[in-house]
Amino acid sequence: MDFTTLQIGIEKNVARIALNRPEVRNAMNALMIKELTEAIDWLDARDDIRVIEICGNGKSFCAGADINYMKDITSFGYEQNLEDAKKLSKLFQKIYFCNKPVITLVHGAVIGGGNGITAASDIVLAEKDTVFAFSEVKLGLTPATISPFVMARCGEMPARELMLSGRKFTTQEAMNYRLVNHVGTIDEMNQRLDAYIDDFLKASPDAIRDCKHLIRNISGRNNPYDSIFDATAMMIAQERMSDDAQQRMKEFLG
Asked: Could you give the CA distance from residue 15 to residue 39 in angstroms, rounded to a whole number?
């Protein structure tokens, strides 16, 4: 498959997806959301792929939503907003419900929806100087579509602080909040990545698939069509059209 916003490499049963919009710090637009969803779906269906790695080219992993994408959103009606929000939610669901282990490596900045990719992943490795933020409230929005995945990783109380304040926080804080599994230098991250890949490749792919299903089932999060995903999509669609959000986004966009 050919992609415009991604680079994909496959070697020894491991697929590497690199977000490839470095000129905008890999900010997500409609095309990237579509392509990343398709890429995860395609790789998940391949028997030869045992592990999926997600990373970002350039200075940052993902700076949230692309400015031009945000400008388009300000002109959407409710139905367009709802359809768009469901596509974003579907991306995170594809990662979360993937049958293969998903390891995400982050650096630079992880802002807004970029946290949805990490929270939906199985393992997150972070370069020690990475900065994180759930910045949505400062735009008059909420991190609605990413919230089920963030809550699954870190729980209610850390989510309250980080989502309500919208503040920037460090990689060490992210690890303390269980949003990150390991912090280190680039070399240390790659060493840890190789160790995880080695472990996953030694395991039975069927057992890993069943184990992921088991974990989701025990935690009560095994239904990809759960109403919570529709509810969060509806919430963000409504918020995008509010007077406050419209004004704040226009001010932010200049």
From this structure: 10
Q: Residue 143 CB: number of other CB atoms within 10 A?
A: 23
Distances (CA, A) of 143 to 41, 65, 151, 214: 24, 12, 11, 27
**Strand 131-133 versus strand 168-170 pairing type:** antiparallel
Please choose, from the candidates 117, 105, 98, the residue with its C-alpha nearest in 3D space to the C-alpha of residue 16.
105
CA–CA dist 116, 33 (Å, integer): 12
Tokens 């919230």 — which residue?
147
Residues 187-196 have a mean pLDDT of 97
**Cα–Cα distance, 118 to 122 (Å, whole number):** 8
Give the CA dihedral 57, 60, 62, 67, nearest 10 degrees: -100
Q: Assess contact for 40 and 8: CB atoms under 8 A.
A: no
Per-residue confidence band for 108, with pLDDT thresholds at 50, 70 and 90: very high
- What is the pLDDT, as a whole number, of residue 68? 85
3 state DSSP class of 241: coil
**Distance from C-alpha of 254 to C-alpha of 252, rounded to nearest angstrom:** 5
- Report all structural domains of the chain as residue ranges with CATH numbers, in order of start: 6-187+225-253 (3.90.226.10)
Query: What pLDDT, on the 0 to 100 scale, is given for residue 251?
Result: 82
The Cα-based distances of 142 to 64, 145, 172, 181, 247 in angstroms read 13, 9, 24, 25, 15
- Among residues 158, 167, 159, 63, which one has the least CA distance to residue 106? 63
Q: Tell me the H-state helices in the chain.
A: 30-44, 67-74, 78-96, 114-120, 147-154, 156-165, 171-176, 186-202, 205-219, 227-240, 243-253
